[in-house]
Amino acid sequence: MRVYFTSSVPCALKLNGIFLGVCDDREKFTDITPEEEIFAEFVPADGGLLSANCILNKSFFQSPPDFCDLYLYDCGAHIHIREFSEKPGNLNVIDQKRINGVLVTLFHNGGIHLSLESEKDFFTEQLPPQARYAEISSLTLNGRNLISLVIPEEADSILLIYDKTRPLFKNRVSKFEIKDTLCADFAFRDTAGHIAHSEWKLGEEGFTLDSYSVQETNQVNHEDERLIPYLFFEALLVHGDFIRYLSPELAERKDELHDYLGKFTGVCIPPSVFYLAHGNINAVGLICPKSENIFEIRFFSATIESGKITNILPVEN
User: Fold this and answer.
1) Nearest-CA neighbor of 282 among 212, 224, 207?
2) How far apart are CA 20 and CA 30, in angstroms?
3) What is the pLDDT of residue 25?
């Protein structure tokens, strides 16, 4: 079985003490058998982070540790080290404000944490490392005073909104604006550059989606048969205009697609080992959640005639 490795931060990858190279968003791989017991070490270049270690065996591939995501497919697996623990240190308050009678504290204690404390309630959660640069502020929507936290990322921001100590909204947005509703854009950064424009109404129970539309921002060749399967699956995932890629006969059965394909949350290019196992076919990987940090990648190919998809077939093992 071929196993690929990636990491959210640059780190040294060692298997049974042997250095395989630097692991980051550029994948490393090795071939192993599930019956082996391999000690894997991920040693981050950042000296303030602890190593992430695990044993690759049958138990790992059934229940991986919380710090990684495991992607399984018929001819291999992909292990992504999502997070590293920080080395222990003294508690350090990064920012603190009192908003609407709530004491909002952003602090460091072996990681970045947020606490919300009112006279009656208390709430806390751990946030990603970039939250140390978060902006805490108040916002008013429909006459209600809320607390917002905006965590900057390279291209997007993570927007969190709380009603006193109650979480209301948490999502990665490319931009947002407060009007009579919460207007938020989501950039998918896929082949067609889909961007979703959404509006969220605030009610007693929280936010509900009021409107949603999708536009393409990239210039792509919609007649390129190599791209059509990717464009179709990506448009279907984001609820865009996927029907444009289907033959009239298949378009009539559009309501059956989700049951046929299963619930998927991402679209990916097959790994190199896929072509060694299945040959040179134009297939697309659909990422399907199995549990909190285990995903199954299912591969599908498409039959194309006159620039339209006439059939969608699972790639057999």
Assistant:
1) 224
2) 9
3) 93
Round to whole Å and give the CA distance between 270 and 298. Answer: 10
pLDDT score, position 88: 81
Give the pLDDT confidence score for residue 268 in this predicted structure.
96
Q: Return the pLDDT at 287.
A: 97
Mean pLDDT, each 10-residue run in order, the chain (317 residues): 96 96 94 89 94 95 96 95 88 95 94 94 94 96 94 95 97 95 97 97 94 95 92 96 96 93 95 92 95 96 94 90
Beta-bridge mates of residue 202: 207
At 68, list the tokens. 């990684």
Q: What are the helix (H) ranges across 79-168?
A: none
226 Cβ contact list (under 8 Å, min separation 6): 282
Beta-strand pair 112-117/102-108:
antiparallel
The kind and range of the H/E element at 94 are: strand 92-99
In angstroms, rounded to a whole number, what is the distance separating the alpha carbons of residues 137 and 254? 44
Which amino acid is it at 9?
Answer: V
Contact 69, 272 (CB under 8 A): no
Taking the whole predicted model, whether its pTM rises above 0.85 is answered as yes
SS3 at position 261 = helix
Q: In what order do the strands lie in the sheet with 122-127?
A: 92-99, 102-108, 112-117, 122-127
Instruction: Record the tokens describing residue 94, joined without a space.
Output: 């990064």
Angle (CA) 89-10-48 rounded to 5° is: 10
Separation of alpha carbons 160 and 114, rounded Å: 11
For 36, the token pair is 């082996």
Q: Token digits for 20?
A: 């395989």
User: What pLDDT score does 110 carry?
Assistant: 83
Strand stretches in 8-91, DSSP E: 11-15, 18-23, 28-31, 38-44, 52-56, 68-73, 76-81
